[in-house]
């Protein structure tokens, strides 16, 4: 059932959509950060999301207060950690963060496809660097509620040569492992040249072994592309499970542009509603292949309690939101938790 919160958000959405997508994104993060620093603001966040009481679940040895989180890419630099907690989420995944700060790709680089409830982004891992994020997360730690899990998604710098890719992931892991609850390994973004080559079965094992040596007891999860074929996905599920990593995130953005009603930029990753069927299919296949060897986080196209229920029925342990928050607003969080 759609809440009055979603109706209210729909009424103000045209005002937000009248401005550049990336500009509104940064304004939203700043507002959420401000709200999270003050008790009245945190109370307002709770009202806006309609989050239900905790429904704790233990996944990967971590106790999440509920199954709903926000995917990487929304808050790369940990600007609004306390705000995300105030919205009632079970977790937030910060990043993608790289060892060194980088500005990302030229603007414009974030585009709304409103008719499809989708986005195309070609951001290019714009972030302030791993040390800056580690500092923010360390400062926030003592102020976060019990059961609110903070993961960090790590990647490589754009100007790092291919032979130095593993060193980049290790450097990012070294900075983030002391403060993150889990590390997500991004080998599937389409916006950094050569990054997806790290999804090859012959490369994923050495990469994860190198990161695991730094991460210690921190669970590792691997974020995969929706553009893999069935055989590639099966092989990667086996490789990830054999590496000792604890989970998969299915999936990242797609380079495909099938059956869209909107005119979409050719470059960049597509997210949102068009990914839902592929997400559910990938989750079901991965669960059948992995059994209980891996936790599975469903990310891509989930925009309602019904979608979340379908993802869990397919085998997901947790779900993540991103694009759907742009179109449905924060009330979606409470709908999913109650659902």
Sheet with most strands: strand arrangement: 3-4-7-8-9-10-12-13
Radius of gyration from CA coordinates: 18 Å
Q: In this structure, how is the largest beta sheet organized?
A: 8 strands, parallel, barrel
Give the domain tally. 1
Q: Percent range for helical residues? A: 40-55%
**Shape, principal axes of CA atoms:** globular
Structural class: alpha/beta
Total of DSSP H or I helical runs spanning 4+ residues: 12
Calculate the terminal CA-CA distance, rounded to whole Å: 9 Å
Q: Hey, roughly how much beta strand do the residues contain?
A: 15-25%
The succession of helices and strands, N to C, reads HHHEEEHEEEHEHEHEHEEHEHEHH
**Total beta-strand segments:** 13
- Low-confidence parts: none
Q: Regarding CATH, which class?
A: Alpha Beta
The H-level CATH homologous superfamily, spelled out, is Aldolase class I
Secondary structure layout plus pairing:
Elements lengths: L3 H14 L3 H16 L2 H11 L7 E3 L2 E3 L3 E3 L10 H6 L4 E7 L12 E4 L4 E4 L8 H11 L8 E6 L10 H12 L5 E5 L14 H15 L4 E5 L5 H14 L3 E4 L18 E4 L3 H15 L4 E5 L5 H10 L3 E4 L1 H6 L2 H8 L1
Can you describe this structure?
Helix 2 crosses helix 3, helix 8 packs across helix 9 and helix 9 packs parallel to helix 10. The chain has helices at about 5-15, 20-35, 40-50, 80-85, 130-140, 165-175, 200-215, 230-245, 275-290, 305-315, 325-330, 330-339; strands at about 55-60, 60-65, 70, 90-95, 110-115, 120, 150-155, 180-185, 220-225, 245-250, 270, 295-300, 320. The strands form three sheets. The protein has an eight-stranded parallel beta barrel with strand order 3-4-7-8-9-10-12-13, surrounded by six helices. It has a three-stranded antiparallel sheet with strand order 5-6-11. The chain has a two-stranded antiparallel sheet with strand order 1-2. By secondary structure, it is an alpha/beta fold.
């Amino acid at each position: 059932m759609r809440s009055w919160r979603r109706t209210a958000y729909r009424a103000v959405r045209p005002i937000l959509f009248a401005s550049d997508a990336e500009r509104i994104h940064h304004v939203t993060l700043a507002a959420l950060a401000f709200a999270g620093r003050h008790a009245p603001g945190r109370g307002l966040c709770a009202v806006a999301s309609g989050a239900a009481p905790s429904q704790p679940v233990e996944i990967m040895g971590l106790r999440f207060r509920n199954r709903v989180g926000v995917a990487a890419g929304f808050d790369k630099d940990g600007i609004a950690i306390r705000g995300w907690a105030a919205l009632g989420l079970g977790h937030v995944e910060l990043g993608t963060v790289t060892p060194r700060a980088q500005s990302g790709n030229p603007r414009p680089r974030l585009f709304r496809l409103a008719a499809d409830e989708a986005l195309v982004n070609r951001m290019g891992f714009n972030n302030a660097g791993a040390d800056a994020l580690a500092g923010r997360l360390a400062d926030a730690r003592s102020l976060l509620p019990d059961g609110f899990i903070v993961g960090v998604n790590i990647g490589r710098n754009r100007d790092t040569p291919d032979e130095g890719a593993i060193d980049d992931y290790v450097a990012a892991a070294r900075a983030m492992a002391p403060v993150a609850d889990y590390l997500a390994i991004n080998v599937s973004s389409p916006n950094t040249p050569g990054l997806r080559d790290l999804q090859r079965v012959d490369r994923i094992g050495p990469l994860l072994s190198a990161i695991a040596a730094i991460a210690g007891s921190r669970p590792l999860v691997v974020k995969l592309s929706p553009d893999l074929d069935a055989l590639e996905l099966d092989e990667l599920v086996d490789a990830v499970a054999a590496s000792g990593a604890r989970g998969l995130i299915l999936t990242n953005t797609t380079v495909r542009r099938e059956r869209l009603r909107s005119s979409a930029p050719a470059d960049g990753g597509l997210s949102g509603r068009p990914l839902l069927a592929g997400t559910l299919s990938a989750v079901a296949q991965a669960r059948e292949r992995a059994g209980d060897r891996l936790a599975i986080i469903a990310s891509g196209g989930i925009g309602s309690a019904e979608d979340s229920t379908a993802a869990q029925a397919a085998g997901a342990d947790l779900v993540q939101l991103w694009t759907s928050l742009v179109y449905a607003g924060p009330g979606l969080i409470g709908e999913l938790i109650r659902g």
